[in-house]
Each structure stands twice: as C-alpha cells, then as structure tokens.
Design brief:
- It is a single chain.
- With 65 residues, the chain is α+β, with helices and mostly antiparallel strands.
- 23% of the residues lie in helices and 22% in strands.
- A two-stranded antiparallel ribbon has the order 1-4. A two-stranded antiparallel sheet has the order 2-3.
- Strand 2 and strand 3 form a beta hairpin.
- The protein is globular and about 30 Å long.
- The termini are close together.
Length: 65
C-alpha cells in the first residue's frame, strides 16, 4: 500500500496524526501534515484508513496494489 498526501489541501487539523502517529506528523511552523512513511506496513493499514476517513480536507489517499 502507498499513502499519498496532498499537502496544499491540508487544513492542519491534526486528525491524521491522532489516527496514525507512525505515518503522519505535523510541521511546527504551520501545522500542515507531513508524511513519515509512504509505504507503511500491514500492521498500520487500519490506522491509515482511519486517517483517510477523518481528514476534513480529504487530503489523504490510500493506494492499494
């Protein structure tokens, strides 16, 4: 699986960080999400799906191969 983050769409709500802290973080200066792990392991799939679901800007996409 691959995670895609559209940073310009991010509204800095931090919901992705709460849902999947091993995959996302936030920049200190403006709070915009940062993708830490583009190809997270299978154990993080549910967390990433939750992050996709709760993102208010729909800035996260999960691409499954």
């Amino acid at each position: 699986m691959k995670v895609e983050l559209d940073e310009p769409k991010c509204v800095a709500s931090g919901q992705c960080v709460v849902a999947a802290p091993d995959v996302f973080d936030q920049r200190d200066d403006d709070g915009v999400a940062v993708l830490l792990e583009e190809h997270p392991g299978a154990e993080l799939v549910d967390d990433v799906r939750e992050a996709v679901a709760v993102c208010p800007a729909a800035a996260i996409r999960l691409v499954e191969r």
